[in-house]
Amino acid sequence: MCCQKNPRTNTELSFLFPPPSMFFFFLFGSLGDKTASVNCNSIWLDDIQGLVTELFRTDKKPDPANWQYKSLYRGNIARYKRRSNLCLGIDLKKQHIIWESSATEKKSSSKRTERYFTKGGLKLLNVDGIPITSKSQISTPGSATWIPVLQRDTDNIPSTSYVNPLGVYDPLTTLWLQGKGPPEDDSRKQQETQEKSESGTSHLMKKLEEHNRMVRENPRDVKAWMDFVSFQDELMRGPSCFTMTEGEWETRKKSLKLVLEKKLAILERAIENNPNSVDLKLARLKLCMEFWEPSAVIKEWQKLVFLHPNDPVLWQKYLLFCQSQFSTFVVSKVHSLYGKCLSTLSAIQDGNMVSHPALPGTEEAMLVIFLQQCHFLRQAGHSEKAIALFQALIDFTFFKPDSVKELLTRGQVEFFEPFWDSGEAHEDEEDAEEEEKIQNKSLPKWQNWLHIERSREAKHWLPWRPDKTKKETVDDCEDPERQVLFDDLGPSLIKISSPDLHFQLLCSFLQFLGIPCSNNLLPSFLYLALDENSIFDNGQNSQGPLTSFDLPLLGISCIGQMNSVAQGGNHVGHPKEGEEFIQNFFNMILPLFSGKKRSDLSVFWLQYEISKVIWCLKIRNKKKLKLQGKKSKKLAKNLLKAPDNRNNFSLWQLYAHLEWLLGNTEEARKVFDMALSMAGGAGVRTLQVCKLGLLYAELETELLGAPEGSLECRAVHILTSLVEKSPYVPYTGKVLSVNILKARKTYQHLLQEYLSEGSVSEQEQTSRSSHLVGVVGSYSLFQYLTLGIDAAVSIYREVHEKLKGMKPSEWLSSQNFTQALEAVTLMHASLLRYHMKTTVYPLHPLREALLEALKMYRSNQPLWRAYVQIQSKSHNASKARRFFDSITRTTKSLEPWLFAIQVEQRRKKLVDSVQRGPNGDVYATIPETGLTNRIKTLFEHAIETENGAHCPLLWRLYIDFMVSLGDKEKSKGLFYRALQNCPWTKVLYMDAIEYFPDELQETVDLMAEKELRVRVPIEELELLLED
């Protein structure tokens, strides 16, 4: 395009010159007589003489390609090169050319700015910053009403001279050009600057000297050596202590191998001074795993266990190491290692090994290792062996004759073997064999395999025994894997003498069967047992915020359940044979106990029935609800008919709650009123009556949706009657103001009494902490209903501050102290959630209460669930992310990682729901906000932790998320990464079959190679499909 200026109007006139390629010109041969002799479609211009007009003719035949494509074919466009940006023949003063494009124009070769994560940026992070200041101005903060603009320092502006005519040189350069040296003040300033730049080095040097001095003066101090090893990471992040110039800092190589070698050298020196320190040897062994081959590491582990066979913690870590080594893992091998561990510790506990005395807490640690073995077998699919282990140890503990109780463990095991091999019935192991049929053969092969495998897993978890009444023998069992021999059980039998551990064993077995109990698993192997995503949802959505029925140990599958991540694991209950087994088990163990422990077992049984009713309410199956309601009510009445349970207010409370859940409100009120009348004038001073009355008041509050300050309601009458010394009278419709004032005064005095009590025995202290929680809950609900939410919240704050101010030494058990604080915090959050549900109330108080509580109790699942629930309503994610980041940096618990991932996944699900319609069509496009990468990063950081590396649930969630993104290749690679850390988890293999159906045969073969339980071989499935 050419532009020419108009001299009169001083405007530019633009002329567009189309290139030659814009038209197609063809020269034809039929141009008259002069061209008749040419036998071609085109002729040369030199061959035609005297022809001036119509030299060219236009081809008017259209080209269809011009209609089909957006532009001309690039081969039909003439190419030319412009040698300069000028044009000959134009007046440069009046005319100029604007070129739209230039073929010779070179791209700007500006260097791209480096980001903070590049290698150069990381180097800058390790260099100390140089402070830059201007003239100091004395001003007190807050004295001025505006921020003053600082004037530029004019003292250091170089002046012009004959050697610096433009004033671009600094003063030192100007002096050098004049042949002069720097003044003394400048030399001093330069020296100070150099000293400041070396301040970081001197700081690290001092810390290094301090660590060297500590290990030199106290070579027996193991903690000092471990701190010195940890200091190497900080030392390598900063500049070297032995370099003096900045250039050496930049060129220094910071390799991971160098750090590991230095740590290893320090640990070897530490072990020379402390040859009996297990912690130092474990730290050295952990570092050696980065250098050595797996076989060499296993030999070193065996050597370490041989030298310290009496250390249960060392045994646990050794078992976890062998259990998580994919290359050498086999179920039978790890199972025999568990037996060897327990038999060795039993011999040490009996005193057979004089060289290694038993350490304190060995008996409890042996029970923990036994439970870890049972969960290992459950996750590997060997449910029959796990159940048989529990049965054998319960028989071995509770039903041994008095004549053998004084024998050593080995002698008792030899005496027990004939009893087990005799085939006597244990807990009604009824056969459940039935022919398996495929309902829909049109489904893919992998779906049929998963369906049958899960079905058999749910039905056949009891060990098979021949029925002598039917003249069955061992050969009659269709699946030999269902038989459990004594050789698989004998080495793992241990002798338990503590009555508390006896009860802990029973509670652990009940939890193994899916029955809610108050006793929780120890954190030592809790994360190894986590394998289902019910940790994020307790499944009690049908209940109100005040009376939620939280089941303990969510996230751990009960026996017989191996559902996918999408299906979840909230199902409660077993098939008919399993329910009969549980019923017979309770009938067998209840006569073994008396008093509180027997009452607790009855409560566990009834709680299990109530949890099945709540499950039916959740799935909204009226038929199952009606049937289950009848069974549960029958059990409750039978338990209350027992002479020992007639005054058991805990059972009366559960029975009334059951009637309330079934919709029988009037019947439930009659049960509550009758139970409170039976208590007489005990009221709130009795723990069980206090809990019963509190639940009654909470249910009435939720039923009516009573707002704050509702004086005329049944809940106020209940809470007022609890503190009166007279017998309870059912609600008549009126509560006197005088009674309300008396009740408030009584609650206040009672609360101060419990908060100021002196030290008591441990058993009384446990009851005291539970009673304190009941009193706080009753008093706060009373204040809420009579005065309002502010009065109730003030009580929680007062109790919280009082308990935080008390030293844990004032409580004999820190566990009771922690449980009381957690329970009070949960009640505080529940009341705020209820108030927000009924009235308009800001979210900030509830969020702050949960944040403060989670900073103290970082593994409390109900608190995390409440926080995630309220955080899902917020559109500002920055504050929650900062909170999760601060918590995960300072804790070893895995719950913060899991719930942080859950929050981000819920946010991503919300974004996806906005972009896609119900049928999956994209009707809105939102830019990627980084949620996908953030979730991946959280997963990666979580599996790098000590507890997260071997947590099956974390790996299952990670694989499921990657599959949801549609990247199956990376998902498959992630699956094999998971097997490197959790090769014993059968449900991981089943997830892989669901995600990668084409590899069904390979996955099943891998399971068989690792000796995981495969109940449906591929050959059997093919036969079933052919029938």
TrEMBL record:
Q: Give the matching SUPFAM superfamilies.
A: TPR-like (SSF48452)
CDD domains in alphabetical order: NRDE2_MID
Which GO cellular component terms, listed alphabetically, does the Swiss-Prot or TrEMBL entry include? nuclear speck; nucleolus
Ordered alphabetically, the record's keywords are:
Nucleus
Judging by the UniProt lineage, the source's domain of life is: Eukaryota
Q: Give the region (Disordered) as residue ranges.
A: 177-208
Compartment(s): Nucleus
Instruction: Please list the GO biological process terms of this entry.
Output: DNA damage response; mitotic cell cycle; mRNA stabilization; negative regulation of RNA catabolic process; positive regulation of RNA export from nucleus; regulatory ncRNA-mediated heterochromatin formation; RNA splicing
Residue ranges that the Swiss-Prot or TrEMBL entry lists as coiled coil: none
Compositional bias segments (type: Basic and acidic residues): 182-198
Which PANTHER family does the record match to this protein? NUCLEAR EXOSOME REGULATOR NRDE2, TETRATRICOPEPTIDE-LIKE HELICAL
Q: Which family does it belong to?
A: Belongs to the NRDE2 family.
**What protein name does the entry list?**
NRDE-2, necessary for RNA interference, domain containing
Query: Gene name?
Result: NRDE2
